[in-house]
């Protein structure tokens, strides 16, 4: 079932089935990363402005941070002509069924410039023995994987953002196909075009969020289901994509450097922020969360 209003909620997080946290990280090397077109407001004015050598160092520092934290990092080569493929949160949604079956839903990218990225990720997951699931033709609209569809930490519950890159129709199909509840959140501000730019689920009861990115119904759903909602200052969210942070283990939070207030709030809530510079990738509208994909 897809939940769109707080008054529809007939469950709590504790009553949703458990699901382990994914332990493997996929990254796509940034050899061909660049800003070559504008498909989100963050990219404006940055075409041709990427420092490739610096981008590579920033990407390597992120990869090494996951390794230091004990995660296995798989690296796929980038592909010429696909400058956004480095944002590998977007081309698929990995899932783990209750019976242990692993698969990925293949995205239907909104921007034509990004459509050819999907088969490269599909091939990787096929080699890993994952079932590949395509959105059926009769389901209309686009879907951008873990840019918009986020697993609730430790639970088989999906948060689904829609409005810019993903169509809400996809969530009714996904809920049925995966047999999970989906909480659908309408995104209303183009600076926050993916759910992972305005909501960061840290652990089962805590999340960072930007209130202005959602409508009234969305804010009510978030408040009802997440006891510790940490508000991110709008400047840090818009300019530094503070909500594109990633907490892989319920404790460490990898986040763009300079999000001073967000970092203070994270520490106060008992988390350990790790500040990284993803400045070259911010020029494309992405940071930590979208530069990797967690899989099971
Ligand atoms: N330039 C990319 C795009 O606009 C950035 C994607 C960032 N990914 C994310 N999950 N927020 O598609």
Automatic annotation (TrEMBL):
Keywords: Hydrolase, Transferase. The active site is at 194 (proton donor), 290 (nucleophile). GO terms for biological process: arginine metabolic process; citrulline metabolic process; positive regulation of nitric oxide biosynthetic process. InterPro entries: DDAH-like. The keyword ATP-binding does not apply. It comes from the Bacteria. GO terms for molecular function: amino acid binding; dimethylargininase activity; transferase activity. It holds the Pfam family DDAH_eukar. Belongs to the DDAH family. This is Amidinotransferase.
């Amino acid at each position: 079932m897809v939940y769109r209003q707080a008054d529809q909620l007939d469950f709590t997080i504790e009553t949703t089935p458990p699901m382990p946290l994914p332990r493997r990280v996929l990254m796509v090397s940034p050899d061909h990363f660049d800003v070559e077109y504008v498909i989100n407001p963050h990219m404006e004015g940055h075409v041709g402005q990427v420092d490739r050598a610096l981008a590579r160092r920033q990407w390597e520092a992120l990869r090494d941070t996951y390794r230091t934290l004990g995660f296995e990092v798989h690296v796929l080569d980038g592909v010429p002509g696909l400058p956004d493929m480095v944002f590998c949160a977007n081309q698929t949604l990995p899932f783990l069924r209750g019976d242990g079956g692993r698969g990925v839903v293949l995205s239907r990218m909104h921007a034509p410039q990004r459509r050819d990225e999907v088969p490269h990720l599909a091939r990787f997951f096929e080699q890993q023995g994952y079932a590949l699931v395509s959105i059926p033709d009769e389901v209309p609209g686009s879907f951008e994987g873990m840019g918009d569809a986020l697993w609730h930490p430790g639970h088989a519950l999906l948060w689904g953002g829609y409005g810019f890159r993903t169509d809400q129709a996809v969530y009714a199909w996904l809920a049925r196909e995966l047999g999970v509840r989906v909480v659908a959140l309408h995104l209303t501000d183009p600076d926050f075009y993916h759910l992972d730019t305005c909501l960061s689920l840290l652990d089962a009861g805590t999340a960072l969020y930007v209130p202005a990115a959602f409508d009234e119904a969305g804010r009510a759903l978030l408040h009802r289901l997440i006891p510790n909602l940490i508000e991110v200052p709008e400047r840090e969210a818009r300019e530094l994509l503070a909500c594109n942070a990633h907490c892989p283990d319920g404790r460490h939070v990898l986040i763009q450097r300079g999000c001073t207030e967000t970092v203070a709030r994270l520490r106060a809530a008992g988390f350990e922020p790790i500040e990284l510079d993803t400045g070259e990738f911010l020029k494309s509208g992405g940071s930590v969360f979208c530069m990797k994909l967690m899989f099971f």
